[in-house]
Amino acid sequence: MPNADTSADVTGKAKLLVLLLAVAWGLNWIAAAVALRELSPWSLRVAGSGLGAVTLFTAAVLTGYSLKVPRGEAKHVMVAGFFNVALFQVLSAFAQMNGATSRAIIITYSMPIWATVLSRLMLGERLGGIRTVAFLLCVVGLGILVWPLFVGGFPPTVYYSLACAFGWAFATVYMKWVKATVEPLANAAWQLLFGFGFIAVGAFLFEGVPRFWPLHAETTLAVLFVGLFGVGLAHFLWWAIVGKLPTTTASIGALLVPVVGVTASTIFLHERPTAPDIAGFVLIFVAAACVLLQPNSRRPEPRA
């Protein structure tokens, strides 16, 4: 059994990975918005998930990392690949096509709310003091941001983004619920491969053969960023983090992603945040800081 100092070091490193994930996933939304100017959502996601899978499988081969999936766990990885990769990627692209990227980002990151509820129901995880505060800040911040969208009706981007959030949360909690032991790199790689399969089938059914040519140089670079970093690297980081931190801690900590994403959308996509946007972002940032800056726990979290 690892000693307390080792456990604290592992937790500290996991929180640094959260910061790296925030940059990769935050900028991924911007790259996707650029790519969607020329590519359809289906074509973008076929390319992104395919490149992401190739990236992780190549990294595993070059480093000699085993991609073996423990007996009986392939079906669980496939289920997670459907919800976490196929469902999330396709619907997030349609969310961006039907509304502002900043709005799609912030609604999608209601994920910690659903993950917290599912973790309590399926895993018996308790919030504890500091994470209860972070959770409540998250709820209030997202409420401030989403409320103006419902005043004028229920735009499709809301439904797409909420479905993304729930699919991501369910896949994350599901893998802990089934007590999957597959290693992070193998888990991420196989999820991307299964997700790519689901997306490819959907693309052919709804759109026919995906179109990837001709494309402007900026679109090509955006697709490469999405595949290599926003999908490949980020998925590996996420599952590495989930393996080291409680699900609720990891998901609330990942709220730094919309802070990066919305800030980048203001700079690169020229979207201007409103007063409710700013208020919500401040609360979300504080929620993430509560998780990332709290002292490392020296004991396993209590279970119900």
Summarize the model shown.
The chain has helices at residues 4-35, 41-63, 74-97, 101-108, 111-123, 129-151, 156-177, 184-206, 217-242, 247-253, 256-268, 275-292.
Query: What percent of residues adopt helix (DSSP H or I)?
Result: over 70%
- What is the multimeric organization of the chains shown? single chain
* Low-confidence blocks of residues: 296-304
Radius of gyration: 19 Å
- Tally of contiguous helical segments: 12
What is the strand tally? 0
Overall spatial form = globular
Order of helices and strands, N to C? HHHHHHHHHHHH
- SS-derived structural category: mainly alpha
Mean pLDDT: 85
Structure keywords:
304 residues; mainly alpha
Report on the structure:
- The chain is an all-alpha fold and 304 residues long.
- It contains 12 helices and no strands.
- The chain has helices spanning 4-35, 41-63, 74-97, 101-108, 111-123, 129-151, 156-177, 184-206, 217-242, 247-253, 256-268, 275-292.
- Helix 10 (247-253) crosses helix 12 (275-292).
- The chain is globular, with a radius of gyration of 19 Å.
- The two termini are 22 Å apart.
Topology:
Layout: H1 4-35, H2 41-63, H3 74-97, H4 101-108, H5 111-123, H6 129-151, H7 156-177, H8 184-206, H9 217-242, H10 247-253, H11 256-268, H12 275-292
